[in-house]
Each structure stands twice: as C-alpha cells, then as structure tokens.
Design goal:
The chain is an alpha/beta fold and about 350 residues long. It has two domains: about 250 residues, Alpha/Beta hydrolase fold, catalytic domain (Rossmann fold); about 80 residues, Rna Polymerase Sigma Factor, Chain: A (Orthogonal Bundle). The chain is about 35% helix and about 15% strand. The chain has an eight-stranded mixed β-sheet, sandwiched between helices. The radius of gyration is 20 Å and the shape is globular. The N terminus is likely disordered.
Length: about 350
C-alpha cells in the first residue's frame, strides 16, 4: 500500500490548481535498495533487517582523492516517497540539461525514508510493534545507506522538503562535514510545538479514538479516524488564494473535499500514518544550530500554514548559523502554501545562485 496520496493531499492546492496538462518527462531512474542488519534505533530498539529503497539518476563521480564530488541527496516530506520529488513541477524544472541538478553532471539520490514508500514500515507486518523511529534514526539510516550501500562518502548538496527540510538541519548538526551545502525548504529549526504540534496530535488522536483502530491490529482500516486525520492534512496543506480561486462555490469546495478524502482514505495505512506524523516528536535542532558550518539556503513561503511567517522564528534563528541565508517567498499566484517547496520554478533562481556560490574551485 502506498502513502503517496497523503502527500498529494498535503499539496492539495497544487493538484487543484494544475495548469494546462503536459506529458511528464520519463526520467531514467534506477531502483536500488540496501538492507541494514540489526539497525539500532536511538531509543534502544533494534530491527533485524532495515530495508531501505531509493531511486538514483546520473552517475557518481570521484575527485582526484577518491571522494564522491557530485552526489545530491533529495529528501521527501512526511508521507511521501522517493517518487514524490519526481513530480514534473520539481524534476522537469531541475534535472534537465543545463538545469541546477543536470543529471549528466550530478548523481541524484532519492531515498524512501524509514516508514515510507518501499522501505521498512509498520504496515509490513509489525504494526504498532515497529520501532518508534524519529528523524535522528532516519538521518542515521540515510548515512549508512549512502556510505555502505552506495559507497558515497560525500555530498555536494542536501535538499530537503518539509520533513526532509527538518532532516537537513539534523544532517548539518550530526554530520557537519559530509555535505558541501544544505538547502532546507519549508520548515523551522525548532521544536514542533504550538499549532504545528497540535494539528499533528489531533490527526493522530483521531485515528486512535476510532474503535476500528484496535490498537493497530485492525483488519480493515479505521476509516472514520483516517477521515478526521486527513481533514487536518488538507487544512494544513491548503492555500487560501488558490482554494478560493479554484473552488469559488460551496458545491465545488465540498466536491473537492469529498474527492480528496475518498482517495486519501483508500490509500493511507493508519499505522504508517501514526508513525510518520509522530516521527517529528523529538525534533529540535535549535540548541546546536551554531554547529552547522556548511552554507545553508533556507527557503519558506509566506502562505505556509504549517510554518507561518508571523511567528518570526526564521529571522531569529538564521543568524545562529555562520553561513546561512533565509528567504521568505511572498504570496503570489505561483506559490502553493506549504507545497511551494516542490514548485521549483518559484525558487529555482535562488538555487542556481547558491550552487554557484558553493561550487568548489
């Protein structure tokens, strides 16, 4: 069962406001997988075999010293997968000839995180007995997969969206010399509290209070709990400007909700949902931000419900990193709220400049 439609719900405005359709580029991705034996999670739990799936594009290159010098790690958001960033609004803008992530020049790596896509997850059979992973575990497993599985010992860039954005900050603190640069998009480097934790907590509680959940040992999905949870996801990922533009009548707005809910409930596993939403519970890079020495391009959007700019957190925290730049993209007809992180055309020029600035001479 795939959780991709969870991400599509989170980016609901992007789906709803799609422009004239065009054929997506068929990128030459290669599937790969690496199994980590007896993976130790931060809380002490162990999984006999942690299976990690990933996609790659391009070919790795090593410098004169034998170190990988062209690898880019792209990290997806909560409920997504390696395929999430293969969306045309991202891949078609970045991966082509002469583009920032030209696959004839760079080796692109897109992992399925723990609990996501084709990697090990609760719905494989362990249900709520699956280890309670968090972002530290995800980053540690990514590092092992890169070094031992792909034999990549250095990264040119880590670009993360949403959950991947938060993981980018974790990467910068945990492995400060591993990547030349970091590009966290659509997050804040502080503990998830206030409204951000509240809506996540409410979504999880909606599932747990459905009698059909049965402490994760259900035989049919707890549909009412999932409906409540996915209702909150649609709100969190919504964009008022685009929602009003594309659904200007009550009938259109309600029909859209019904359509999204039907698809989301049919393609979301409740246990997987609980795990990946709760994976952020221990996240808080704030105390060690000064240890992130790599250059950072940090971009948020002004219409992001999940990371509202009026909190002023980004402007306060960016100065704690010695080589960080924060950009707040103003609301426009091109932004898509939280989903702006995948709308590469909106921020592509910032990325081009950043890649040039961080290129080793």
């Amino acid at each position: 069962m795939t959780n991709r439609l969870f991400l599509l719900a989170l980016l609901s405005a992007s789906i709803a406001s799609a422009q004239a359709p065009h054929a997506a580029t068929q990128w030459p991705t290669k599937d790969g997988a690496y199994d980590i034996s007896n993976f130790h999670f931060k809380d002490g739990e162990t999984l006999e075999k942690l299976h990690l799936h990933y996609l790659t594009l391009g070919t790795p290159h090593k410098d004169a010293s034998g170190h990988t010098d062209n690898a880019i790690l792209l990290l997806h958001g909560t409920g997504g997968s390696a395929h999430s960033l293969m969306s045309p609004v991202f891949s078609d803008v970045l991966f082509g000839p002469g583009q920032p992530f030209d696959i004839t020049k760079y080796f692109i790596i897109l992992p399925d995180d723990i609990g996501h896509g084709e990697s090990s997850k609760p719905s494989d059979g362990l249900h709520m007995h699956f280890p309670q992973y968090d972002y530290d575990d995800m980053v540690a497993s990514q590092h092992t997969m890169l070094v031992e599985g792909l034999h990549v010992d250095h990264l040119r860039l880590i670009l993360g969206t949403s959950m991947g954005c938060m993981q980018s900050f974790v990467w910068g603190e945990t492995y400060p010399q591993f990547s030349d640069a970091l590009a966290p998009f659509a997050c804040l480097p502080v503990e998830l509290a206030g409204r951000n934790r509240m809506w996540r907590y409410m979504a999880m509680e909606s599932i747990k209070h459905d009698p059909a959940w049965k402490d994760g040992e259900y035989t049919t999905e707890p549909a009412e709990g999932l409906r409540g949870a996915n209702d909150l996801i649609v709100i969190a990922g919504s964009v008022p400007l685009q929602m009003q533009k594309n659904f200007p009548t009550r009938a259109q707005a309600e029909a859209y909700v019904d359509r999204v809910m039907t698809a989301s409930i049919a393609h979301t596993d409740a246990n997987d949902f609980l795990y990946y939403v709760n994976a952020s519970r221990n996240y808080n890079p704030a105390p060690k931000l000064s240890t992130i020495t790599a250059p950072v391009l940090w971009i948020n959007s002004a219409d992001d419900f999940i990371n509202p700019p009026e909190l002023g957190i980004a402007e306060k925290m960016v100065g704690q990193m010695p080589h960080a730049k924060f950009i707040l993209i103003p609301i426009s007809d091109a932004t898509r709220g939280h989903g702006t992180h995948t709308q590469a055309a909106v921020w592509k020029n910032y990325l081009i400049d950043f890649m040039a600035q961080t290129e080793k001479k």
